[in-house]
Design brief:
The structure is a single chain. This protein is of the alpha/beta class and 132 residues long. It is globular, with a radius of gyration of 15 Å. A four-stranded parallel sheet has the order 5-8-10-11, with helices on one face. The protein has a three-stranded antiparallel sheet with strand order 6-7-9. It contains four helices and eleven strands, in the order E-H-E-E-E-H-E-E-E-H-E-E-E-H-E. A hairpin with a 3-residue loop joins strand 6 and strand 7. The two termini are 26 Å apart.
């Protein structure tokens, strides 16, 4: 299996565990070490992912999954578009929150969370609760 990351820290950890890892190219955000930009989107568009794991800042019915920054939102949107199955990673604090950039509708992805704060979300998509 091949792994593709848009974060320097994630790519490093995958490589250290012996996984065949690629990292997209683009601009490195100083605080998070996430890689964003059009060159990364171009690379992502060449792949067909079996599974993708994507973090989110917000989960809300109308806005879907959202993030504060356009460049990161575009990367996440491209990953969702080119994935057979996308798992959104977000703890319970991400629910009922909306950020400026939506990258996928709520029914397009499965959610992995610690717990669901409102049962109505269970009707919108597949959600897996995991404990620590």
């Amino acid at each position: 299996a091949n792994y593709i990351a848009n974060g320097v820290a994630h790519a490093r950890k995958l490589t250290q565990k012996g996984f065949d890892t690629y990292i997209i190219s683009g601009h490195i955000k100083p605080v998070t070490e996430a890689i964003v930009g059009t060159t990364g989107i171009e690379l992502i568009s060449r792949f067909n992912f079996t599974k993708a794991f994507v973090g989110t800042n917000g989960i809300e019915f109308d806005a879907g999954f959202s993030t504060p920054e356009i460049d990161e939102g575009l990367i996440k949107e491209a990953v969702v578009k080119h994935s057979y199955m996308t798992f959104i990673l977000g703890d319970h604090t991400k629910f009922r929150r909306v950020f400026p950039v939506s990258f996928a509708p709520i029914n397009k992805c499965c959610i992995i969370t610690d717990y669901v704060p409102d049962e109505k979300y269970l009707e919108a998509t597949v959600i897996k609760e995991v404990s620590k």
